[in-house]
Amino acid sequence: MKKTGLFKILIFILMAIVVITWFVPASYFDAGELVEYGSVYKLGFFDFFQLIFGSFQFKYFLQIAFFILCVGAFYGVLAKTGKYRAWIEKIANSFKGIEYVFLICVAVVLAALSSVFSYGLLLFIFIPLLIGIILSMGYDKLTAFLTTFGAVLIGQLGSTVGYNINGLLNDTIGTTLISGLVYKLLLLFIPLGFLVFYIIKAKHPGTKKASTKSEEESCGELFIGEKIANKYSVVPIIITFVLLLILLVLGCTNWVESFGVTVFETFHDKVMGVSFLKDILGSIGEFGSWYYAEMCVILLLLSLIVGKLYRLKLREIIENMFKGAGKLLPSAALIIMCYSVLCFAGNTFFYSTLAKYILGATSKFNLFFSSVSMILGSVVHVDMAYLVAYAIPQIAAQDANSTVLMLLCQGMYGVTMFIAPTSVLLALGLSYLEIPYKEWIKKTWKYILIVLAVVVAIIFAAMLIK
């Protein structure tokens, strides 16, 4: 895997945090007040390594990394069937001359799923398939990234009712899922419109030459798989992806918090009320509470089933599962390094002190300083689940309209994830597609500035209309 430059950047950020802890006192914002701890969280030489190693012990971080490896294992088996590549090429050929239609549909669907259901990284289950088709059409990797990972990031920026973004913000700021819904739709549709414009203007693919073995390996061989002639049908693969989508929607949608649907809780209670079924199924949550661990189990089971349907020996299935997982091992390790930044920030409590100085630059709510504080908080806290614990309460304590605060937090977090080296989706996408971070910034900085301008304009509109 080619270097993206992200590992060095992340190490530099971690070292910068070590230096900051020697000059910035620790503090924590709690119950509307800033609790000062003083300079008791200075990091030393061994602390640096202990926190990095400690990041690999967090259950949540490891579940994400293992999920990525399971996706690799799944595609490792698909690549061996021979029919997976034939299916990809057939889809690519069916859109010959109107390739942009496929790209636009993919971007819109992924952005919508991300916005409404907050699936985020879980959509990575389908992204290798979509990227394989896009690359088979002859588009470059940057176009493939923007169409897939970029669309998911837009859905995250313009999250409408997804609990993992909006629900967590609502609990902190005091808004509801329908608060500022019109503004949130604008945060979704306008950046998505610019992305569609980019896709339409992207260089039209020419005839794709036959890939050499070295070229296929440079793409991890997860994009298109192997060319193996056999008599088997592609239908099992299609059914597998349909089943994965159904299970993703049923299992990983927060039905209760986002939509008020309790039928799955009731059904789960009835099933678990039967002792025999409870003993067979074990400890499994109801639909709506599934996350990375449950989808890992589903991916591994389907890998074994697909392998057997295509008459692969058990040894071949296991070997290709490990082979596919191995190709995504660097990406999984990089993701944990992104979360190491969160681990460093969460254990040293320097952010609240910096936020105090930034937010205190003016006596009243100021969009610029609040945005700077939110961007800094997003860079070092990475995940919205941790952002609402460590950063957003301090910003939300300002005397400002709750809808404005909600849009500021969601919008600035969304923009930051497009550019921050600590962005999990960005890091995964760049490492998977082998796109250097510098190249990403060089080719997309104009688009990112446009998105930032759109976010600021929408927040200003909310401030004026309130």
Keywords:
single chain, 466 residues, mainly alpha, two-stranded antiparallel sheet, 24 helices, globular
Question: What is the helix fraction of residues, given as a range?
Answer: over 70%
Quick one: overall form?
globular
DSSP strand count: 2
Order of helices and strands: HEEHHHHHHHHHHHHHHHHHHHHHHH
- Report the end-to-end length measured between terminal Cα atoms: 50 Å
Low-confidence stretches: 207-220
**Whole-number total of structural domains:** 1
Write out the strand line-up for the largest beta sheet, numbering strands in chain order: 1-2
Radius of gyration, rounded? 23 Å
% residues in beta strands: under 5%
Quickly give the structural class: mainly alpha
- Main β-sheet: number of strands, strand sense, barrel status? 2 strands, antiparallel
Task: Count helical runs.
Answer: 24
What's the mean pLDDT score?
A: 89
Describe the structure.
- With 466 residues, this protein is mainly α.
- The chain has one domain (6-254, 289-465).
- It has helices at residues 6-21, 45-55, 59-81, 83-94, 99-117, 127-136, 141-157, 163-173, 181-201, 213-218, 235-252, 255-259, 263-272, 275-281, 292-309, 314-327, 329-348, 351-359, 367-381, 384-390, 392-396, 402-419, 424-433, 437-465; strands at 26-30, 33-38.
- It has a two-stranded antiparallel ribbon.
- Strand 1 and strand 2 form a beta hairpin.
- The chain is globular, with a radius of gyration of 23 Å.
- The protein starts with 5 loop residues before the first helix and ends with a helix.
Short structural summary:
By secondary structure, this protein is an all-alpha fold.
